[in-house]
Specification:
Blueprint lengths: L2 H8 L11 H6 L8 H14 L1 H15 L3 E2 L2 H8 L5 H26 L6 H22 L10 H4 L9 H18 L17 H18 L5 H14 L9 E3 L19 H8 L5 E2 L1 H9 L4 H5 E2 L38 E2 L10 E4 L1 H13 L7 H14 L11 H10 L7 H12 L4 H11 L28 H4 L1 H10 L16
Antiparallel strand pairs: 1-3, 2-6, 4-5
Length: about 500
């Protein structure tokens, strides 16, 4: 990204809570490495404001793979039929390293050993985990220990760390950050997530640790148990008030990689770019409708056309999802005969939910079911589902009544023998709008059971890809390390190979 474009972006920080550092940014507008506050703001904006990879990695591929969405041309053609598109598959790799990771690594380098910036250093460590967790979970082995050090240490061909080693480093880094964070550790400036609230950052570190612990539950259960216990003991999210939310602004989208604008919600940019072609899948709508879930009307709008044309017939179901693998115009009755997405979910000002209390409670429900942590799995499950309903209010949804929530929870409790499926399916719903996480959890658990893709032109024969493939130009830019990584991951740069923790 050109400096003038970065500076244009930094100039709007006063609108989003970075006023106290603005004078410093103006004094030194080019040397971004001297402005950790500006870099923190920039990296946080990128994580959900990057419409380029939100469109490709989150909506088209992850959202299509796990059947959150269906109907739009690109989601159907590539995310449901599993066709390769190098631009789509590599978007988050390219932008994540170039924008987000470079910034947080610079912050860590700049603040290391500075007694007045202990908290800033700790927050940057947490951010580094957040950024690379998405990359490694999507691709597998990847640069971590040497990534982002081209300027400070001259490392321009970073090694690809093994994913197991990356996860071990994640746990270590989150523990270090949790211990570092303290009232006397200096202010955290430029923070759009928590406005410098140290107690919130400590909970985020532990909740991320819980997420990562459960991510390795199938491949390394002993380590997963150890890390889940430590996360709970240190203190995870306690309510929706702790949620890691990014609030966005109403700014136009530019899909040119060199001129991206990160101030608006990147997923909303994608919805808008797909010209209202996106719909929730029939798997999602059927689950919500058939179970009497209060979230149905909070997420979806009723159809306006009938399955046979014209207006819906008397008694005709008004909430209908788009069948995965079927274009919206090929659905019975066409696009008006399927439910839409609530308008407040498609605004550029729509917040983005990175990590939630609902997620933490559902993961604790699974950990408790496994006997890893104290507490009742049923109680954690109930709290997680209710929080998942309540969290939709942040988007502008009318609150569900307590009576409606209680009725749903009473009718759909955690059932013996189906715990893993129920918990994983509720996580799938909670992760809606953050399909990257849903895709990872689906690969780990195998739930929910997805609808079969029978399209004859599917490039994989209907088999859901199990990772995204690396940019092919890595073979020229970082050939030795690239080939070494491939040798550990099946020998070919294929998306049917599996990442380390995926043993399902």
């Amino acid at each position: 990204m050109k400096f003038k474009q970065i500076i244009a972006l930094l100039a709007i920080f006063t609108l989003v809570g970075c006023t106290e550092n603005f004078d410093e940014l103006e004094k030194d507008p080019v040397a971004l490495s001297a402005n950790p506050a500006g870099q923190l703001t920039f990296s946080q904006l990128c994580m959900s404001g990057d419409g380029y990879y939100q469109w490709r990695a989150n909506l088209i591929y992850s959202g299509g793979f796990v059947q959150h969405y269906a109907g739009a041309w690109n989601v159907t053609e590539f995310g449901s039929k599993f066709k390769k598109n190098d631009d789509y598959a590599t978007a988050i790799w390219r932008n994540g390293y170039a924008n987000e990771l470079k910034c947080v690594v610079d912050i860590i380098e700049k603040t290391s050993g500075d007694a007045a910036a202990v908290n800033m250093n700790a927050v940057a460590k947490i951010m580094r985990v957040m950024v690379v967790q998405r990359i490694t979970d999507l691709y597998g082995d990847c640069p971590y220990s040497e990534a982002g050090l081209g300027y400070s240490k001259g490392i321009v061909t970073p090694k690809y760390d093994k994913q197991q080693d990356i996860y071990n480093a994640f746990f270590k880094e989150l523990e270090e950050a949790f211990v570092q964070l303290n009232a006397g550790g200096g202010a955290v400036k430029g923070d759009l997530f928590y406005n410098g609230d140290i107690s919130k950052w400590k909970k985020l570190a532990n909740t991320l640790r819980l997420r990562l612990a459960m991510r390795i539950s199938e491949v390394s259960p002993a380590e997963a148990e150890k890390q889940a216990k430590a996360a709970l003991q240190n203190g995870v999210f306690e309510s929706n008030a702790d949620n890691c939310v990014m609030k966005h602004l109403d700014f136009p989208f530019n899909d040119t990689p060199g001129a991206l604008d990160f101030r608006g919600n990147g997923l909303s940019y994608a919805f808008i770019g797909n010209e209202n072609g996106d719909h929730f899948s029939s798997l999602m709508i059927d689950f919500l409708r058939n179970n009497g879930d209060p979230r149905l009307k909070m997420l979806a709008t009723p159809k306006t056309g009938g399955a046979s044309g014209g207006a819906p017939a008397p008694g005709e179901e008004l909430y209908v999802g788009n069948t995965p693998g079927v274009f919206q115009w090929d659905m019975p009755g066409g696009s008006t005969a399927i439910s839409g997405i609530q308008p407040y979910l498609k605004l550029k000002t729509t917040p983005f939910l990175h990590v939630s209390y609902s997620e933490s409670q559902l993961l604790l429900a699974e950990a408790a079911f496994r006997g890893w942590v104290t507490g009742s799995a049923a109680t954690y499950y109930k709290k997680g589902v209710e929080a998942g309903i309540r969290q939709l209010e942040v988007y502008g949804a009318a609150p569900a009544t307590q009576s409606a929530i209680d009725t749903y929870l009473t009718a759909k409790p955690l059932v013996a023998g189906k715990e893993k499926e129920q918990i994983a399916t509720q996580l799938w719903v909670t992760y809606l709008l953050n399909s990257i996480e849903a895709y990872s959890n689906w690969r780990r658990t195998g739930f929910p059971k997805l609808l079969a893709i029978t399209n004859p032109d599917s490039e994989t024969g209907g088999v859901v890809p199990t990772r995204l493939y690396y940019p092919n130009d890595e073979a020229q830019k970082n050939g030795v390390n690239f080939e070494e990584a491939l040798s550990r991951m099946g020998g070919k740069n294929e998306w049917t190979n599996k990442v380390w923790w995926d043993v399902n």
